[in-house]
Amino acid sequence: MQPFNIVLIEPEIPPNTGNIARLCAATGSSLHLVGKLGFSTDDRYLKRAGLDYWEFVDIHYWQDLDALKAHYPDSRFLYLSTKVARSYLEAGFRPGDFIVFGKETKGLPAELLDANPDTSITIPMPSEKVRSLNLSTSAGIVLYEAMRQTGMLG
Predict the structure, then answer these.
(1) How many domains does one find in the chain?
(2) 121 near 86, Cβ under 8 Å?
(3) Mind listing the pLDDT tens digit for each residue in 56-78?
């Protein structure tokens, strides 16, 4: 089966990206880094979070989301946000989906979510005291649910 694609738009925190790179290596998923990164790819914290798994990460860099989407015109993009109501559990994941996350401090732009209401999803937050989960935690939760739904966990 075709793996999933994790897309990070302008990630800001090196350890989050490193942890997600390791997640992608462990699951056979591709990692797509989009736009201006908030760190250097030589950052020691980025490298440390990914440990010695970097050689197993299928990583791609894109100038912007439009360039990525143009390269994969027939693919489905799912947008994760705290600003929408539809749960990721209802997403009906398909192998090859692109799972898109925004930057840690701002998330995805409202206009992107508004333009894609049918493919915008969230991780429900039972407590009103916490606004969102850590980016790498969120990526792990959603990716493993996508793999479970598509029978990729064995």
Answers:
(1) 1
(2) yes
(3) 889 999 999 999 999 999 999 99
